Amino acid sequence: MQYVYIITIGLHVMAGVFWAGTTITLARDPEIRAERFIGPQMGAAGMVFLTGALLWYFFHGAYFGSMEMVLALGIVAAFAAAGVLGTMVRRTSTQLAGADAATEPALRAKMAQGERIAAWLLVLTVLCMATARMF
Ligand code: HEM
Q1: What is the model's pLDDT at position 30?
Q2: Is 23's C-beta closer than 6 angstroms to any atom of ligand 1?
Q3: Is the Cβ atom of 19 under 6 angstroms away from ligand 1?
Q4: Which one of 59, 61, 70, 83 has the minimum C-beta count within 10 Å?
Q5: Helix 38-59 × helix 2-28 angle, to 10°
Q6: Closest Cα to atom 33 of ligand 1
Q7: 20 lines ligand 1 (CB under 6 A)
């Protein structure tokens, strides 16, 4: 059974690092074309939620103490980040294809703002995940 835990936590941390890392990078440099990353970012988010739910089932179940409160705060922030990326980046990036030169900067500004909001939310998630077992 031990190897199932190792694989699950490995996938969880790798997908989480990719998701948070690319979001923070895109928030820092809006010149990078965010539309090229949003697919893999949302895929990584899906993997994080799936493996995170498994980790909760394996190690926490129905128990809800102080560690679980901190994890839950991180999970809520991750859900909010996924929502912001889905609405402000993915949906907006689909409008880029038909956009003229005048509207493209406005669409890109909206996407950059979405990456910035999501980045702060994911910073909170990573902090909660990394420190939860100390509570
Ligand atoms: C960017 C997003 C995320 C990152 C980088 C991340 C990272 C991590 C890390 C590094 C740990 C290990 C903590 C430790 O063992 O001390 C962890 C644990 C955990 N994560 Fe996440 N996580 C993220 C999102 C999520 C989400 C969305 C969920 C739930 C759906 C979740 C559920 C859990 C659970 C339940 C644990 C506890 C495992 C245990 O008890 O050992 N995580 N996470």
Answers
A1: 84
A2: no
A3: yes
A4: 61
A5: 140
A6: 52
A7: yes
